[in-house]
């Protein structure tokens, strides 16, 4: 399935390193057919980039940002979509725990910022400040990913003060089986028009990862 050129199917998905069930993750992504896929917890380590490249091929996409400074994030794009710039941004390791990064790319003129924010509140706040200051323009931007925080927390409050929550009435996304917490999100600048938003479900979703993916259709400005 190919989206019209004035719309993008945008998906965010924490794939848990493809350790739970790689075949089911592949089935979920292929069925959803996103134009842009923001990945959290991609495979890492010595063969991580190669495993992500193989995964992209299996789902019919290409890796745009993968590994290096992106660390806990990756960005995949469907054929036929243009990519004009890309970067992998290292975030400072303030907690001494997981080293985190951000995948950034411009796809069909829209800037995508894929995040996997820290479990540590102060580090999460510091990383968000850096992102909003330096990497989230006021127009033509989508921020997507695993926020590791509930919607009533300060991260969501800061993000929704400048961005539009694409699924404000959305249900929980974590854990995949019997989800209780909404911690995954797609947010856009006000000039973009988020449309239908779906938290995916089904047998493959339940077996693929510990998160449910969120799929949003975004209309591009004319």
TrEMBL record:
The keyword Hydrolase applies. The keyword ATP-binding does not apply. Coiled coil: none annotated. Pfam families: Exo_endo_phos (PF03372). GO terms for molecular function: endonuclease activity. Keywords: Endonuclease, Hydrolase, Nuclease. It comes from the Bacteria. InterPro entries: Endo/exonu/phosph_ase_sf, Endo/exonuclease/phosphatase. Residues 11-211 form the Endonuclease/exonuclease/phosphatase domain. This is Endonuclease/exonuclease/phosphatase family protein. It comes from Cellulomonas fengjieae.
